[in-house]
Amino acid sequence: MKKTIFTGFSPNTRAKDMSIAASFLFLPWKWFQWKKGTHEKRAMELLEGYFGENIQAITYDSGRSALYHALLALDVGEGDEVLVQAFTCMVVINAICWTGARPVYVDIEKDTLNMDPVKADHACSDKTKVIILQHTFGLPANIDALLDVAKKHNLKTIEDCAHSLGARYKGKLTGTYADIGMLSFGGEKIVSCVRGGALITKLPQLAVRLRKTHATLSPSTRRVIRQHLLHVVLFPMGKSLYHLGIGKVFLKVLKELHITNKIIYTEEKYGKQVAWYPSKLPNALSALLVSQLPEIESMNSHRRHIASLYKKKLPHIIETQQDTDMHIYLRFSLFVQNPNAVRDLAKKQGILLGDWYSLVIGPGDVDLSVAQYVKGTCPIAEERAAKALNLPTDIHIQDSDVLRILSVLTE
């Protein structure tokens, strides 16, 4: 029986990461280093070295916490409006709403899945304060045009680089164009420490403000840190046994008994904050991040290689996200008439395909009214979401796996 192919499910975890997590769990002298230690500072230093250009970096427990603090640093509050694209995640919307501001949805370009600059211009009002530039699946948005919109309307800018760490636009790293760049190190991002995020900025006054609020935060609780560390150790075990049925039961038990963490919590799907964040990125998870940050380029090179195989072998009738040399392919996104049927067929053959984003605001069971999204506001995003299907590109996907996946798509 062939092993299961996953899209997601902690795709970046290596044996090295399992060893680091296990050391914090099982070595008594490391039990007192879960929250504080040298790794958080080292992670920020590595980020600053990677981005260069006088960039300052501040880490957080998650990308959503980082985005929330970015908005606060830009003085976003009650009565303000923030331009955000549809075809995004609920946690982005939550960060906006938690400031008291209102999300104003802008439709996307059909081919890029990124914000349409013309529609962004039309969406501006005298209440608009910030525009968020999302680089969907690792394809940089039309940054020049969107920054022109921001300049025209005197808006502050944030780049959402949750999908695009390491992607370059006109030779320059995404995240370095806007006032603030937001990074995510969640379990299914470019690099991962299970849950983590960061803000980067080259503006000294913003860095001072961010560090001041960051200093008031506490690290995550020991319970939460333990869940994340156990995730690193136990999740790969469940994946390795998934094709036998044992792994599926094992992972379900971990989830139901709250032994490991969730990607998004039920409260967040209804716009509520989870009690233990925003917080600082704890030392133990920072150690995982320090281990993976030097691998950004090699991981992205692998993603591009896998994407090139998909592009070469996919039938031309299957529509895909725009292909450019700037794309780093966190996932390989395509569009079919009945994505659920394709996912079901693939599942029967031991292949779990992705559903980012099967709803215009993901995940698929989000209440759109809570997200303040009115159906019909962004028709292109809605059409894309209804057909979206994504294929894995992570470090565990081999050339032979691509052939297995493509065999499903060509049936």
If you compute it from the alpha carbons, what radius of gyration comes out, rounded to the nearest whole angstrom? 20 Å
Structural class: alpha/beta
Give the helix proportion (percent range): 40-55%
User: Uncertain runs with pLDDT below 50, 5 residues or more?
Assistant: none
User: Sheet with the most strands?
Assistant: 7 strands, mixed
Please tally the β strands and state the result: 16
Which descriptor suits the 3D outline?
A: globular
Roughly how many Å apart are the termini?
A: 21 Å
Label the CATH architecture of the largest domain.
Answer: 3-Layer(aba) Sandwich
**CATH level 1 class label of the largest domain:** Alpha Beta
Under CATH, the topology of the largest domain is which? Aspartate Aminotransferase, domain 2
Strand order of the largest sheet: 2-11-10-7-6-3-5
Q: Mean pLDDT, as a whole number?
A: 96
Number of helices: 15
Total number of domains: 2
Strand content: 5-15%
CATH superfamily of the largest domain: Type I PLP-dependent aspartate aminotransferase-like (Major domain)
Account of the 3D structure:
With 411 residues, this protein is of the alpha/beta class. It folds into 2 domains: 30-214, Type I PLP-dependent aspartate aminotransferase-like (Major domain) (Aspartate Aminotransferase, domain 2, 3-Layer(aba) Sandwich), CATH 3.40.640.10; 295-409, Aspartate Aminotransferase, domain 1, CATH 3.90.1150. 40% of the residues lie in helices and 14% in strands. The chain has 15 helices and 16 strands. It has helices at residues 15-26, 39-51, 63-73, 90-98, 117-123, 143-152, 204-214, 222-240, 246-256, 266-269, 283-292, 296-313, 339-348, 379-387, 399-409; strands spanning 5-6, 56-60, 81-85, 88-89, 102-106, 128-134, 156-160, 168-169, 172-173, 180-184, 197-201, 319-320, 332-335, 351-352, 361-362, 388-391. A 7-stranded mixed β-sheet has the order 2-11-10-7-6-3-5, with helices on both faces. It has a 3-stranded antiparallel β-sheet with strand order 12-13-16. Strand 8 (168-169) and strand 9 (172-173) form a beta hairpin. Helix 2 runs parallel beside helix 11 and helix 5 runs parallel beside helix 6 (143-152). It is globular and about 60 Å long. The two termini are 21 Å apart.
